[in-house]
């Protein structure tokens, strides 16, 4: 099973996800498959948040924990970044450089 | 402006996002606002991936870089985790403990 | 319970959804609530499609029928159109007028 | 160019979309492609709603009209229903039969 160091960086998480996918047979899933899965997890995250926000729920439907759903979304982010050979940390730094120039009204 | 240490952990990113939101006036945005924004960024990520995958595009529409869109989704993940006082690293470890028990067919 | 005429138009569906929401206590849900719900249903649609496409599934997780999920997404489209006093049929005609001018490469 | 009758039903819209896709070269797009496009349009719908809801916007980014984005989401619903030989009207009736039995708390 893949391991994470004590204070893992984004690169450590990306390597973990890469190895995890090989072990669980997900490595062959395409970029489009991962987008489908990511969209699914976003829906599950919204559902967990809906429950936390006190919106009406069908008591019979499965609702995950917000932490679990955030983690699943993060896993698919790493999986997509890996498929495009992107370093999430560098992508964050680059986007923040752009975001600092932007104005919001 | 917030700073990131040399080898930032997920907790460092969450603190950075928290400070960044205060500086740019986003701290008052609600959980539902952040879900709307997250859904928007997922759409932009899908669009950037669509272009990379060679699907037909309207040459006049704005298309972001995949790295930028992954970074934006990650920022909103941190923003949502912060609003629920969740540690993303711990959420990842907890979910992986569950995922290791699961079967996929 | 609301009814639909024999050959319902989009306007008939929008009226049905409006009445249905009143009866089930959803009329007070805000636009942002409906977006959260729409995002959730998109995730469930993706999950049903994932299963149909033969992607690996956790046999223990609930998976809906594609028709059911398409219907739920359509219901939320009507609910959002109603909240902005938009006629979906007119919106369709207007957008197709624009789409006919567009080029895709 | 495809046409719609005076008071089009959901089946009329599905036929229109089917013919429109052939004319514009989209008929070969797969189910997963359509999910990617649907996710993209949901993001654009959320962005248009964000603007209408008065949330901070980057004045330089493209924002569509809510009616246009609702129409685009509806088009992709029809395109997905067509690819699974599903009649949206029947799917709506079937799901409402189920929804009437459900409780929300």
TrEMBL record, chains A, B, C, D:
GO molecular function terms noted in the UniProt entry: hydrolase activity
CDD domains: NTP-PPase_SsMazG (cd11535)
Keywords: Hydrolase
InterPro entries: MazG-like_dom, MazG-related_YvdC
Tagged with keyword RNA-binding: no
Residues covered by the NTP pyrophosphohydrolase MazG-like domain: 32-103
Protein name: MazG nucleotide pyrophosphohydrolase domain protein
Natural source organism: Parendozoicomonas haliclonae
């Amino acid at each position: 099973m893949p391991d994470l160091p004590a204070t893992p960086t984004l690169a450590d998480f990306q390597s973990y996800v890469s190895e995890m996918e090989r072990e669980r047979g997900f490595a062959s899933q395409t970029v489009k498959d991962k987008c489908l899965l990511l969209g699914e997890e976003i829906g599950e995250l919204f559902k967990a948040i809906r429950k936390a926000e006190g919106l009406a729920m069908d008591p019979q439907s499965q609702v995950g924990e917000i932490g679990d759903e955030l983690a699943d979304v993060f896993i698919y982010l790493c999986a997509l970044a890996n498929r495009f050979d992107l370093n999430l940390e560098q992508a964050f730094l680059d986007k923040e450089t752009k975001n600092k120039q932007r104005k919001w009204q």
